[in-house]
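Changelog note: in this version the structure field was regenerated for every chain. One regenerated record is shown below for reference.
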Amino acid sequence: MDLNNIQRVYFIGIGGIGMSAIARFFHEKGVAVSGYDRTPTALTRQLEAEGMQIHYTDDIHALDQKANLVVYTPAIPATHEELKWYRDHGFEVVKRSDVLQEITKSLFAITVAGTHGKTTVSTMIAHLLTDSGYGCNAFLGGISVNYGKNFWSSDKQVAVIEADEYDRSFLKLSPDIAILTAMDADHLDIYGTPEAMEEAFITYTHNIKPNGTLIAKFGLHRGNELKADNKLLYSLQNDAANVYAANIRMINGGYEFDVMQQDWMIDNIRLHIGGMHNVENAVAAITVAHLLGISADKIRAAVESFKGIKRRFEYVIKNDHQVYIDDYAHHPEELRALITSAKALFPGRRCTVIFQPHLFTRTRDLADGFAESLSLADEVVLLPIYPARELPIEGVTSEILKAKITVPVQIMQKEEVLDWLKKTPVPLLITAGAGDIDQLKEPISQLLH
């Protein structure tokens, strides 16, 4: 696959957050981009407005018969008619990860992997490099609030890439700098066991280019098996790590802190997004920027101007009477960090969490962890499980979480939530989940305003 000689590329699943970043990459290079997705979304409408041709029915008469390259997402079933047609007719059909593999070969690649935190860390790094004038090509798994998109380009031959562990696709990448944020169990429908998933993260570090650098979270299980010619460990505030935050102060829903390392430090950094885990994410991003030679003043200014990522501890409403946070959290550890940070930033407020479980297998495999994290709230509303790519599993419903949660909890359909909120005071509200719960964000915001 020679990325420089492609004139036409077709995407099957173009509306996915990772797929759309690559579609934008080709489009900005002047390649004719078209594709299919199951349903129109705000993101597909943006792609169409940018000049890409998209249709929403699985129809072999609508595909591009002259495409040089066909890219598909692993979420597309093998029975998909368009995918079958391209394969039957001898087209070059590749996964998104194959394209990213070629990009990491040809550019100086900074890749961010981990069960959680990777979208925030990769977006922070991309913003630090862009805002400071260093420059980068960014391939992100979320929409940056600063830039309003998940991809941007630069003449600088540097790429910041979110490395997705789903379907083992991140194992194709060969980074110059690799970040590893977490190795908690997830995607057990793919990996089978937590140990197998840990093996994949260990293998990810073995693919770092010679003389490359690994920046890994301090204290990871089996961290001694992670491999790189250069290794740095970062932490929120454990001074046994190579890099950590100190003197953390909570200020108006954000933080001030210093970043400490044995040979350098940057003081008085201001981060205007919530979540103590985001201070730790910032430590990782700042470590990358320092490694690339960006000055302390430019790092400080870039962090202060960082506005976050949509659906990552996103303040939808924040005033003296009402705080409404929307978040993509869909794993027990993400929920734990989200709820504890929100309660610490806004003490004394009753915390209500509306959570939509994502995937039957994840809900079944991690039920105890979900219940424990959600029980940190004062009150929980559960939506039915969002199936995504899965068929229902008998006996696996939101009821299994409800039975284990130790605070007041009820199950509602999405349509019932607004009526309930009209009658219920919620001084600190969180909506969380990776399915279609984001469709509630705008109506809830209007109702609370």
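Spot check on this record: The chain has a mean pLDDT of 94. The CA atoms of residues 35 and 171 lie 26 Å apart.
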